[in-house]
Amino acid sequence: MTVTSLRLRALTPQDEAPARRAHDVMAREGFEFLLGPGHDGDWSDYLGRMEDHRAGVGRTTRRYLVPTG
């Protein structure tokens, strides 16, 4: 049996183009890749809101992570 490790991380400024493309592809299939409102606006604002969510600012903590590597 082969064991593969998977490391997860938060989205970064460098992820904007691939994340938006993934969101568009998945939206055509009826799925939402980027969470919450505002994902189509300013990317740095979106990342800030996601960080607030992770930290539990103003609401329950939630995390959105992507694989590294």
From TrEMBL:
Domain of life: Bacteria
Protein name: GNAT family N-acetyltransferase
Organism: Cellulomonas wangleii
